[in-house]
Amino acid sequence: MSDGLNMSRRIRRTPYTSRIEKVGVRGFSVVNHMLLPKAFQPTVEEDYWHLRTHVQIWDVSCQRQVEIKGPDAGRLIQWMTPRDIGSSKIGQCLYIPITDVDGGLINDPVLLKLAEDHFWLSIADSDVLLYAKGLSIGMGLDVIVEEPDVSPLAVQGPKAEDLLAKIFGENVRDIGFFKFDWIDFAGTRQLIARSGYSRQGGFEIYLNGSHLGEQLWDMIWETGQSFNISPGCPNLIERIEGGLFSYGNEMTRENNPLEIGLGKYCKLDGSIDFIGLKSLQNILSEGIKRQIRGVLFNGGRCTTCSTPWPIMVGDKKVGDITSAIWSPRLEANVGLSMIDREFWKMGQIVAVQMPENNLASGKIVELPF
Amino acid sequence: MSDGLNMSRRIRRTPYTSRIEKVGVRGFSVVNHMLLPKAFQPTVEEDYWHLRTHVQIWDVSCQRQVEIKGPDAGRLIQWMTPRDIGSSKIGQCLYIPITDVDGGLINDPVLLKLAEDHFWLSIADSDVLLYAKGLSIGMGLDVIVEEPDVSPLAVQGPKAEDLLAKIFGENVRDIGFFKFDWIDFAGTRQLIARSGYSRQGGFEIYLNGSHLGEQLWDMIWETGQSFNISPGCPNLIERIEGGLFSYGNEMTRENNPLEIGLGKYCKLDGSIDFIGLKSLQNILSEGIKRQIRGVLFNGGRCTTCSTPWPIMVGDKKVGDITSAIWSPRLEANVGLSMIDREFWKMGQIVAVQMPENNLASGKIVELPF
Fold it and tell me: Who among B4, B13, B106 is closest to A4 (CB)?
């Protein structure tokens, strides 16, 4: 099946892996110690056009949930994030940066508020479970921090709503963006959110119960045939064009949320207290030194960006590209990059230092592309 | 190069990856968000015989270090582990289970004591960094918890000592098992330990400074030619035969250290306090319910164990195999398994439920095989 990634129990399979294999997966990534399908029979470009036109089913089980439940649940979560969660409502999804003492990013999950004392953090690739456990144990909080048996399945693309309305009823149409509701499935009640890691619209079903995975996949797959459904995954072209960032790629613990353009999610006026507040206040008062920008560059179809590519202005290194790919729509390479303040203005001409020692000319552009 | 694993910056390359590619790596695993080379040109069996006869160089950079430094460093580490570290000495490596409140295993790192207030935890595959950060922040401890730029390179096999003595001097011969010392390399002082994830002897160089990686690799590689050196990696046959367990495979947070046979590293008499003490005391007084055993079984060369394989006695499921492979030396399959108490005695006849629905007969055996 896959000769580049060596399998073992440690690289966890998902409730949908058997189905993913059946439809011809060609490559995986590993996120949160779990398989993330990343390549199917079509090319990334064919997949890109399909995602923009039809509907896809994505195994995103690796978006593991960190369940935080109990009297101190809200207190623990507020302590972990600069975003004010005080006015959040049940049924709401909130994108929340999680910070370290120095303001560095630990993760950038989506928070789902299930009840006043019950939350899920739908995480990117780092063990937030262990951070939350450590904090809770260290502070002696009255909460349970666990990973429930929840495996998100995404349905993305312009036809996603019609497909899911046909399967689960018209009510799914009423779910607002970044809101969630509940559907009945196989005698169970399952959470569905209007969300997902694309800009093409769609939903994520947070399936609670691995044993139901194949049944859920099959139901969507079969009904999806008349919608021209295909198996898919976060599409690198679509994600970069859409300005969707990836923890571990665009941001690491070396970056703070202000650099990532997440200032609007950082309440720094002292009205809430959280880990890293003082550091972020200092960074803000000293001025943000670098920030994420788009870079549009030529030089032919670029290779995979597996280490940061230096961005130059003359002899000066002014930033790094962290993800890049050829955009068939823009007929140029598109990259996400961290750029020093002096050079981050739109239209700035730059050169990209590619791995093969050739310099490609480019310019700083707005996100999304 | 590798079409089964999709590369990105998030799956971090190591200081040795360029060299690993040069010598023909064919497959990777991902550990601690970093590439672990797992397959080269020879088969696993050829590699097994080579490792037992000659010397190999392994890129084990993914054994990341969690550096804990400061006045409260010893206190934090003791709080994380059931092993009494009070009498540990500078220059010593200690295998320490790290536990959760319920006694579940968070990780099983090697602790290196650099100074009374300065430790490295050389970790298996989970973000111990975030657990330690959470605890330290939650308890308000006076420590720094960081991941230094340290990338272990292992030299394993019966000729490892001769090779490294030739390069770094005769003093390396004096390093005891699970002890470390320092060597001079390229004007720097580097830590070297007599340790490694095989039973064939050898060393691990904890290279501090990624920029020196290729130079270190080249020096060992070139001098190693006359020792019949080859690139390698933890060998699944050798590791299973040797009874070396892997976090995420043989043990997860579902398992406690007593089940893993780590009772000798658990000080449960109340003379030290740590996270999970009460839970482990309860487990001990109620009696350990299951424990790791070897299983020797037939049925022809088994496939990769990527989900636990049930072990049956009659109609009763009595355990699971978590790692398994064909042993060319024993001419049978060897497996590591968690077995219920009633059935864990040596010589117990069992049946292994393989993925293809065929039952293989086997028996419980001592570890190492």
Answer: B4
Distance from CA of A158 to the nearest CA of B (A): 26
Are residues B313 and B187 located together in one domain of the fold? Answer: no
User: B89 and B32 share a domain?
Assistant: no
CB atoms within 10 A of CB B39: 20
Task: Give the gap in angstroms from C-alpha A38 to the nearest C-alpha of chain B.
Answer: 7
Same domain for B255 and B352: yes
Tell me what pLDDT residue A3 has: 57
- Out of B234, B253, B279, a domain closes at B234
Q: What is the mean pLDDT of residues B261-282?
A: 97
pLDDT of residue A1: 34
The residues, any chain, with a CB within 8 Å of residue B343's CB and separated by 6 or more, are B313, B318, B319, B350, B364
Label residue A27 left, alpha or beta by phi (over 0 means left) and psi (-120 to 50 means alpha): beta
Backbone angles phi, psi at B198, to 5 degrees: -150, 170
Q: For B96, what's the count of Cα atoms within 13 Å in the CB-facing half-sphere?
A: 28
* Same-domain pairing of B157 and B142: no
B8 vs A306: CB contact, 8 Å cut-off?
Answer: yes
**CA-CA distance, B234 to B252, in Å (whole number)?**
20
What CATH number should be reported for the domain holding residue A279? 3.30.1360.120
A292 vs A299: CA distance, rounded Å: 22
Tell me which residue in A2, A134, A139 faces B133 most closely, judged by beta carbons.
A134
Query: H-helix or E-strand containing A365?
Result: strand A359-365
Secondary structure of A130-160 in HEC code, one letter for each residue: HHHHHHHHHHCCCCEEECCCEEEEEEECCCH
Q: What is the mean pLDDT of chain B?
A: 96
Give the confidence band of A49 by pLDDT, cuts at 50, 70, 90.
very high
Edge to edge, what strands does the sheet with B93-95 contain?
A: B93-95, B110-115, B118-122, B65-69, B144-146
Give me the residue label for tokens 């999709």. Answer: B6
The verdict on residue A174 lying in a domain is yes
Tokens 């492979």 correspond to B325
Q: How many structural domains comprise chain A? A: 3
- The encoded tokens of residue A257 equal 């949320």
Same domain, B56 and B70: no
Put simply, whether B316 touches A (Cβ < 8 Å) is: no
Alpha-carbon gap, residue B32 to A183, rounded angstroms: 36
Q: Return the structure tokens found at A194.
A: 């209007």
Cβ–Cβ gap B106/A13 under 8 Å: no
Same domain, A156 and A218: yes
Q: How far apart are CA A51 and CA A229, in angstroms?
A: 9
Does one domain contain both B76 and B187? no
Does any domain span residue A8?
A: no
Q: Name, in order, each residue with C-beta under 8 angstroms of A50's C-beta and a sequence gap of 6 or more.
A: A42, A56, A157, A228, A230, A232
Tell me the CATH number at A82: 3.30.70.1400
| Residue where one domain finishes, among candidates B123, B146, B169 | B146
Both tokens assigned to A58: 């994505």
* Contact call for residues B64 and B12 (beta carbons, < 8 A): no
Largest CA distance in chain B: 64
The domain in which residue A57 lies consists of 17-61+149-235
Nearest-Å Rg of the Cα atoms of chain A is 21
DSSP-derived secondary structure for A247-271 = BTTTB-TT--TTTTT-GGG---SSS
ipTM above 0.90, yes or no: yes
